[in-house]
Amino acid sequence: MSLKLKDIQAPVSEEMIEFEKKFRQSMKSKVMLLDKITGYIVRRKGKQMRPLFVFLSAGATGDITESTYRGASLIELLHTASLVHDDIVDDSSMRRGFFSVNALWKNKIAVLVGDFLLAKGMLLSLENNDVDLLKITTEPVKQMSEGELMQIAKSKTLDITEDLYYQVIQQKTASLIKSCCKVGAFSAGADDETVEKMGEFGLAVGMAFQIKDDLFDYGTFEIGKPRGIDIKEKKLTLPLIYSLRNASKSDRRRIKSLVKKAEKKPKVVHEVIDFVKKSGGIEYAVSVMENFHNDAKAILQSLPESSYRTSLEELVQFTIERTK
User: Fold this and answer.
1) How far apart are CA 227 and CA 217, in angstroms?
2) Number of folded domains that form the chain
3) Residues 6+ apart with CB under 8 A from 265
4) For residue 294, what are the domain limits?
5) Does the pTM of the predicted model rise above 0.85?
6) Residues sharing a CB contact under 8 Å with residue 9, sequence separation 6 or more, in sequence order
7) Sequence-separated (6 or more) residues with CB below 8 Å from residue 68
8) Is the CB of residue 73 less than 8 Å from the CB of residue 55?
9) Tens digit of pLDDT for each residue in 142-185?
């Protein structure tokens, strides 16, 4: 039976409802235009996975407190700001099936909205003397920027190694989930060792999550036709990196040449995808994802049994079983 996010949320369902209210409040502004835009952002929210990691991590390691709510709000404010800025960088007009902020209000306003959200997050922490929470949550913001810039630089040369790929996805994706789990444990009053342990758990989950996301580009897991978006953007992900590493020099040269043309010649994307599938790239990436998944589960086993721990285990499973 497939896992449902609603069931996984059960131990913290009331807290998640309360969090929604507090988060909406944290985005309020006296400027009418800004209030309208932040209201639009809140209405098109996604699965709320990151706050869920915060609350379940807090419950699994101690008690959910007001600090937990502020930590979850801080994570969401910083993450939302990064998404608004990402859409500008990518010149993207859609986000989760809705028009992006820059599509509706243009780039200048979108940049300012992202800046406002970043400032709101920092002020929320400083006004409540949550300096330690701010330290935990600002590190991934720095890392996300570094990871994105590193990936952009490597897309020009197409020489990314497997180790470099892990570094990029750790910075771009896993660092934020790591931060969520550390914030949850810290806000619950857990000791330093437990906080670090939850950070390692979040890191493993984040790595598995991003590899799963990269696999969608190849049309795996019954999601229909391959997307090929990463290939068109010259982003070398694990399935392709593995396949290139194990290819002959002539095949490697040919496939890299196709990737360079992919943006202007969409037909070559399918040739690259076929090459990856025949080279065992999909199977290799799935095996690495499973290894990270197992690392995360092993860390959870060291926590006391509880409904929170069970939901965290199910949430980890959900991240690698999802079909979108």
Assistant:
1) 5
2) 1
3) none
4) 5-311
5) yes
6) 16, 52, 311
7) 15, 54, 55, 58, 183, 184, 187, 188
8) no
9) 999 899 888 888 877 888 899 999 999 999 999 999 999 999 99
